[in-house]
Amino acid sequence: MTGIGDRKIRSTHPFDARKINRIEHEFSDHPLLSAQALRELAKRLDSAKTGKVKFIDPNAEAGSDFILGTQPPQGRSIDDIFDNLHEPGSWIAIYEVRSDPEYGPLIDEVIAAGAQLIGQESQTIFDSDAYIFISAPPSLTPFHIDRENNFFLQIQGQKQFSAWDPNDRNTVDELAVEGWIVRGSLADVNWREHHAPRAVVHDDLLPGQGVFMPSTSAHMSRTLPRHDNTDRKAALVSISIGVVYYTALTKRYALIYALNSFLRKLGWAPRPPGDCIQPIESLKYYGGWIATRLLERMGRFHRQRGM
Fold first, then answer.
1. Model's pTM, two decimal places?
2. Are 148 and 214 in contact (CB under 8 A)?
């Protein structure tokens, strides 16, 4: 077993923090990521009525709305769900894991391991957290985007993972990205079958493997059975963790998206973040910072996480 603090994350190719990267990691044997430890975590958070233990419709498809419930299906207990995780379509997620004091050091350890790849930008990391997904075939996590950067690590089982370049505006257009970053709406992030060939990653992930995704990378996943495991129940259950974080750059882009949204309401057609010369980008960043704080104080704007 790898010692605490000694675990590494490696890129299988030259790493680029602006692109999707295949990675390998040494966190699969971490004691806090065992099924039993996650059962206890889910029970603690569920008993505290935090709303951080979530469930999805077992009939979800790639194009389904990514809507999660906080009530266990059929009124089942957390213990009952974990006892029967191998049942087809089982899916449970634990959100904002840092809210549990035991898991903060694990998140920090993953971030520290990933910082070796990220380089100088890692010095501006803030508000890191984690999301844990536990599922059995043929469950599926629908097509969506996230606002954070994400080290997605496969811990147990097998998962088919698809991800799209964060700048692919043929798959997710600029207004859809803006809607998610500024308003938290995925209404315009829609799956179409012709998106599939545009995925830059479409692979089966095994324990010790993973994917790094920059902010706004579209992705989805499907849990697959492992055929090389003699324990049938264990072969069915997939455990993965997404350790997420923001940086000065993600904050800068979010505030420019916010300003663009305000300008759009005035009839302007602003350019997206990164598409202006540096002095204009800086003006838009500071304009977004002032506008979001002012409107928030007036009760006319809700500032999303990472802004």
1. 0.94
2. no
Specify whether the CB–CB gap between 144 and 176 falls below 8 A: no
For residue 302, tell me if it sits in a domain. Answer: no
Work out the number of other CB atoms within 10 angstroms of the CB of residue 269.
Answer: 7
Residues 111 and 235 in one domain: yes
Q: Do 242 and 293 share a domain, yes or no?
A: no
Q: 97 - beta bridge partners? A: none
Digit-coded pLDDT (tens) for 175-196: 999 999 999 999 999 999 999 9
Going by C-alpha positions, the residue among 103, 111, 102, 98 that lies closest to residue 8 is: 111
> Residue 289, Cα to own-chain centre: how many angstroms?
25
CA quadruple 161, 115, 254, 300: dihedral sign: positive
262 and 139 in a common domain: no
- Tell me if 93 is assigned to some domain: yes
The token pair that represents 280 in the structure block: 């204009």
Retrieve residue 40's tokens: 């206890």
- Using CA atoms, how far apart are residues 154 and 294, in angstroms rounded to an integer? 42
| pLDDT tens, residue by residue, 208-224 | 999 999 999 999 999 98
Domain that holds residue 265: 251-297
SS (H, E, C) 2-45: CCCCCCCEEECCCCCCCCCEEEEECCCCCHHHCHHHHHHHHHHH
At 195, list the tokens.
Answer: 């998106």
Residue 299 binned pLDDT confidence (cut-offs 50, 70, 90): very high
Q: Which helix (H) or strand (E) holds 110?
A: helix 104-118
Task: Determine the 3-state secondary structure of 233 from DSSP.
Answer: helix
Fill in the DSSP letter of residue 66: -
